[in-house]
Write a structure and sequence with these properties.
Length: 367
């Protein structure tokens, strides 16, 4: 199913499909436009200890739209296969950690099921006249061939910049460009090992969010904490310290600076205090963007302190993907009025304390 949305350095990305799209942090502000009347809802069911509950059937579920019971037409159990977009960001502080990143990626792929398909996107450095820049590159299309994926991982390079937004757009426009086959409907995922701080993308977050959510999937982020490493090398002599890119400085002034504050894109004109202020705001922005994408897509953020924790975090992501259900229904409200509609999934016959994490609503199409 194809979904159209109106209305983020180091990572892997993965997308689980659904028939909703764009949303803000508040459910009532969420906005999803669909090109079909079929509404797909991916979700996870856990017990009171947070352990996934498996082997549930279609008869266990009921879905309500704006408080009205809907007729379920589609249901996929947790055992159904997935299409996974795996994005590998090897920039900045990760330059010396490429082998660890590759091993973590390989372990993640190995932990998926034989029927799951995986695509790999990574960064690389490109020399242009007078400068070097970083670009996002599709290393492997979707495939279940584990040998081909292992060979693709061997091709992963490093970069000196972070085209984070551009790589997510590449997921939407190349990896998940076409509607999924029947067995993968509602079964797409993006998993990201990242700090989420973009430095070189041509695109911005709003464009990225629209396109990514338009694939109809859930985004998972393994959020690595690189702020301390970055700021340790940010202060002092501007000719040898780490620095912000021009696009990062422009993003900071556009989002956080007051109109009275003098704006500059010359890093050497910044004092240490302002450098730290910019860094704090850019990292806070990245955190907020990841949380938003995960929430509106039905995914999750997994924080880690450093790359040594990546393997365990990816194991948790794989386990969650393997416990995801999805259901679909045709809304009894046939009006194409562009209104926001709340979704509530209920499960019958569960022990006390059981919880459901699912998409909370969508915006109906309009004429």
């Amino acid at each position: 199913m194809r979904v159209r949305v109106v209305s983020y350095s180091l990572f892997f990305a993965v997308v689980i499909s659904a028939a909703w799209v764009n949303a803000q942090t508040k459910p009532e502000d969420q906005e999803i436009r669909v090109d079909t009347d079929l509404i797909e809802v991916p979700f996870v069911v856990t017990d009171k200890l947070g352990k996934p509950i498996l082997n549930l059937k279609k008869s266990n579920f009921a879905v309500y739209e704006d408080g009205k019971l809907q007729e379920l037409t589609d249901f996929s159990a947790a055992s159904a296969p997935f299409e996974v977009a795996l994005v590998l960001d090897t920039s900045g502080s990760t330059l010396a950690e490429l082998p660890l990143i590759q091993r973590s990626a390989q372990n993640f792929i190995a932990s998926l099921r034989p029927g799951d398909k995986v695509s790999i996107i990574a960064y690389k450095a490109v020399r242009e006249p007078g400068k070097a820049t970083a670009v996002s590159e599709l290393i492997s299309p979707l495939t279940s061939d584990r040998a081909a994926l292992a060979a693709a991982l061997d091709k992963v390079q490093t970069s000196f910049g972070t085209p984070y937004y551009d790589s997510l757009i590449q997921v939407a426009e190349r990896v998940f460009r076409d509607p999924p086959g029947e067995q993968f409907r509602g079964r797409r995922a993006i998993v990201a090992l990242t700090d989420g701080v973009d430095s070189t993308s041509v695109s911005d977050f709003e464009e990225t969010k629209d396109l990514l959510l338009g694939t109809g999937g859930a985004a998972y982020f393994i959020k690595i904490d690189t702020r301390e490493f970055f700021e340790e090398n940010l202060l002092g002599d501007c000719t040898v310290s780490k620095r912000f890119s021009v696009s990062q400085m422009r993003r900071y002034y556009r989002r956080f600076a007051s109109s009275k504050l003098e704006k500059t894109t010359n890093f050497c004109e910044l004092g240490d205090f302002e450098r730290l202020a910019i860094s704090k705001n850019l990292y806070d922005l990245a955190d907020a963007e990841m949380e938003q994408l995960a929430k509106v897509s039905g995914g999750k953020v997994f924080p880690i302190a450093d790359l040594s924790e990546a393997r365990l975090a990816f194991k948790k992501v794989a386990e969650e993907i393997g416990t995801k259900y999805s259901l679909g229904y045709y809304s009894a409200n046939e009006k194409r009025d562009g209104t926001y509609r709340k979704i509530k999934v209920e499960v019958k016959g569960l022990p006390p304390g059981a919880q459901i994490r699912a998409r909370e609503g969508y915006t109906a199409p309009s004429n």
